[in-house]
């Protein structure tokens, strides 16, 4: 196993351009598509109503109460200028009980901020309605507030479009989606070396050597796993430590998810290798099929956007949707070991089954 | 030492190797000669335990190797017809990889690599990537790879295909030295009869999956002992003329190659004067003719009515 592993490593060491390109690529893609925004975002707020100061003070306090954004009261002129000249993505104009977003872009940040602000405004509106006719509005307000925060019945607040109104961070989700997508490419190309070397007759030499077939496969699989895992962890570390993204408290759990995902994906790639006619066909088909998987898994969209049962079924057959689910759980919802057990078990199952079938098919293809 | 017994391989019902029997004695250099598609590579794959025979056996020192090829693989060095190397790695890295998988002990690996590079004459280029090598150099590394574990038997499958004459001579000389000086037993496959003639003590000739002749060079040539080979150059060749030549008394085989006609005929038949007569009758002028020293090429022609290059 070791010599096979080392030979693969030597090849990548000699021309690491591809790996480096992929690492840089997945970071760049994420930063580009998510607008490079990560918390804490500073949003300038202002008002032009009559009781400007009163309104500004009220909402500044409410908006800053939770979430990882910072809302700062600014002069109207200045806020508008900043948006116009691209110094900030957006500003918010406040009314008594409504708001307007001042922006010229369509970045995910805008939606992200909008979501947060809307939640705050809607909650406030409810409280307002409820307390209007009460004899002791202040007391009731406290009561409602504590109830909302610690509800007797778990209640899901939904907006008109049916989206969950929790602060779901599309930026983080896209980051994971791109990172795993790039990993799928690397893993696939490395697993494909199995059939490339087979066609090049290098296999025959290995078979004639005292190295058994099992340890030969293990060598290729171990290497594909190694390179996929290392490159994904490096990308996550860049996000976490260099770009200061907030990936949650449990980086260790993320690493576990990445490891299981990588194993599962190596197996899928092996299955793919077994199905296609040869390494050339693999190069032609794999890169066009792989990007579809996160797409139908809904990795690029808000959760719940894809509801077609066939689509979700197909998406669930691949590890990427389960991995993203687990990673988002860890990052945004403080998931623990127990919470990610299910996606992990599913990924392992996918891995074991497709590895078995894949190796069998690759074996059968030799005359 | 190594022998095959009724070795047969069929792919989807099509028999491509048909009851082939051949043997190798220790220290011998044996040639396997045949045109493309004769079944040489398939035979070799079965001998080297890469391919399971449909029927028949491969024996090493009287023991079947089909069930348990471990002993065979230890003493075998196989040079495949294709260049089986990592193009992206250097010659040295390739040899290191194959040395490792062939379990050359760590302490000897470095010296074995250098020795082998010396044998194939690529010591100076060892740090260069295979993909920068010429065809002949790749072939040499391809051979070097099979020598790392000091095999007792070396099987080479057309190791000189598509390379320049200089590299070709180098390889032939190299194989000869391995055989003569180190006592390595050699099975050499080729469709170039000159190579086999030059290198091998004994020759098997294969065609359509069958061994159609075997023996030492002189034994094979004696097949032709009561025949002459005549090469004729007429000013033009037409079907009627050829048909008439075939009718001449004593003519066994007629074969056109380019502008020449090769004729095999019984010795001492009055073929030459007849030929001139036939030519006159068909308005064909004989520009030149030559009695040839018989070669293995002629033996093949005699046996099959075709040339090896067909
Ligand atoms: N795996 C295979 N499947 C089907 N036919 C094959 C296979 N390998 C070789 N053949 C056929 O067997 C014949 C002999 O091939 P081969 O042994 O390569 O001949 P040679 O090495 O003498 O040129 C050819 O007709 C070839 O097409
Ligand atoms: Mg061949």
Automatic annotation (TrEMBL), chain A:
Record-annotated ABC-2 type transporter transmembrane domain positions? 20-359
> Would you indicate the residue range of the signal peptide?
none
Q: Is Transmembrane among this UniProt entry's keywords?
A: yes
Q: GO: which molecular function terms?
A: ABC-type transporter activity
Give the matching InterPro entries. ABC-2_transporter_component, ABC2_TM
Indicate how the chain sits in the lipid bilayer: Multi-pass membrane protein
Domain of life here?
Bacteria
Spell out the protein name for this chain.
ABC-2 type transporter transmembrane domain-containing protein
What species was this sequence derived from?
Alkalibacillus haloalkaliphilus
UniProtKB/TrEMBL annotation, chain B:
As recorded in UniProt, coiled-coil segments are none
Superkingdom assignment:
Bacteria
Q: Which UniProt keywords apply?
A: ATP-binding, Nucleotide-binding
Record's keyword annotation contains ATP-binding: yes
GO molecular function terms listed in the Swiss-Prot or TrEMBL record: ATP binding; ATP hydrolysis activity
> A Pfam family for this UniProt protein?
ABC_tran
Q: Which residues form the ABC transporter domain?
A: 2-233
Keyword set includes ATP-binding: yes
Q: What SUPFAM superfamilies would the database entry show?
A: P-loop containing nucleoside triphosphate hydrolases
Q: Where are the transmembrane segments?
A: none
Q: Which InterPro entries match?
A: AAA+_ATPase, ABC_transporter-like_ATP-bd, ABC_transporter-like_CS, P-loop_NTPase
What PANTHER family does this protein map onto? LINEARMYCIN RESISTANCE ATP-BINDING PROTEIN LNRL
For this entry, the protein name equals ABC transporter ATP-binding protein
What does the record give as the organism's lineage? Bacteria, Bacillati, Bacillota, Bacilli, Bacillales
């Amino acid at each position: 196993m070791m010599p096979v592993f080392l030979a693969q490593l030597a090849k990548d060491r000699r021309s690491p351009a591809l790996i480096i390109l992929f690492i840089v690529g997945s970071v760049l893609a994420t930063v580009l598509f998510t607008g490079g925004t990560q918390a804490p975002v500073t949003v300038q707020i202002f008002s032009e109503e009559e009781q400007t100061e009163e309104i500004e003070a009220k909402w500044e306090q409410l908006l800053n109460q939770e979430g990882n954004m910072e809302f700062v009261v600014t002069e109207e002129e200045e806020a508008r200028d900043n948006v116009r000249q691209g110094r900030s993505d957006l500003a918010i104009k406040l009314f008594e009980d409504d708001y307007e977003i001042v922006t010229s872009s369509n970045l995910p940040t805008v939606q992200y901020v909008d979501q947060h602000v809307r939640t705050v405004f809607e909650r406030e509106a409810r409280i307002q309605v409820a307390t209007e006719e009460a004899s002791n509005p202040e007391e009731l307000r406290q009561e409602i507030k504590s109830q909302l925060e610690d509800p007797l019945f778990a209640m899901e607040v939904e907006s008109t479009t049916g989206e969950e109104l929790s602060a779901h961070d599309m930026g983080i989700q896209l980051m994971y989606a791109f990172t795993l997508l790039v990993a799928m490419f690397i893993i696939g190309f490395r697993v494909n070396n199995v059939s490339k070397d087979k066609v090049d007759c290098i296999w025959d030499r290995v078979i004639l050597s005292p190295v058994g077939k099992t340890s030969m496969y293990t060598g290729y699989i171990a290497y594909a796993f190694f390179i996929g895992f290392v490159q994904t962890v490096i990308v996550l570390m860049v996000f976490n430590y260099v770009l200061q993204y907030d990936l949650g408290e449990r980086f260790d759990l993320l690493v576990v998810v990445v490891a299981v995902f990588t194993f599962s994906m190596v197996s899928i790639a092996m299955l793919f290798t077994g199905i296609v006619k040869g390494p050339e066909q693999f190069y032609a088909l794999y890169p066009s099929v792989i990007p579809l998987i996160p797409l139908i898994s809904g990795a690029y969209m808000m959760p719940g956007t894809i509801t077609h049962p066939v689509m979700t079924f197909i998406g669930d057959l691949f590890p990427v949707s389960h991995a993203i689910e687990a990673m988002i759980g860890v990052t945004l919802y403080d998931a623990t070991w127990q919470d990610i057990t299910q996606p992990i078990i599913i990924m392992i199952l996918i891995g074991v089954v497709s590895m078995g079938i894949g190796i069998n098919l690759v074996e059968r293809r030799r005359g | 030492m190594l022998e095959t017994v009724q070795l047969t391989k069929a792919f989807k019902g099509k028999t491509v190797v048909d009851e082939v029997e051949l043997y190798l004695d220790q220290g011998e250099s044996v040639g396997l000669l045949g045109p493309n598609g004769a079944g040489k590579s398939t035979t070799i794959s079965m001998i080297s335990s890469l391919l399971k025979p449909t029927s028949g056996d491969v024996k090493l020192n009287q023991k079947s190797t089909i069930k348990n090829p471990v002993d065979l693989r230890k003493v075998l060095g196989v040079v495949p017809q294709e260049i089986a190397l990592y193009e992206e790695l250097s010659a040295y890295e390739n040899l290191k990889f194959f040395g490792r998988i062939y379990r050359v002990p760590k302490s000897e690996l470095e010296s074995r690599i250098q020795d082998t590079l010396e044998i194939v004459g690529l010591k100076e280029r060892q740090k260069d990537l295979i993909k920068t090598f010429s065809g002949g150099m790749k072939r040499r590394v391809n051979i070097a790879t099979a020598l790392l574990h000091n095999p007792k038997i070396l099987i080479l499958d057309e190791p000189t295909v598509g390379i320049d004459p200089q590299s070709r001579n180098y390889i032939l000389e190299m194989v000869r030295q391995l055989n003569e000086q180190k006592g390595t037993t050699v099975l050499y496959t080729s469709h170039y009869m000159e190579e086999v003639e030059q290198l091998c003590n004994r020759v098997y000739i294969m065609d359509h999956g069958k061994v159609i002749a075997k023996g030492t060079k002189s034994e094979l040539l004696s097949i032709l002992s009561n025949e002459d080979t005549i090469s004729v150059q007429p000013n033009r060749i037409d079907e009627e003329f050829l048909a008439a030549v075939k009718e001449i008394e004593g003519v066994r085989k007629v074969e056109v190659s380019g502008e020449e006609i090769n004729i095999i005929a019984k010795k001492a038949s009055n073929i030459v004067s007849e030929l001139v007569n036939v030519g006159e009758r068909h308005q064909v002028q004989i520009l030149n003719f030559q009695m040839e020293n018989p070669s293995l090429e002629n033996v093949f022609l005699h046996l099959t009515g075709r040339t090896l290059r067909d």
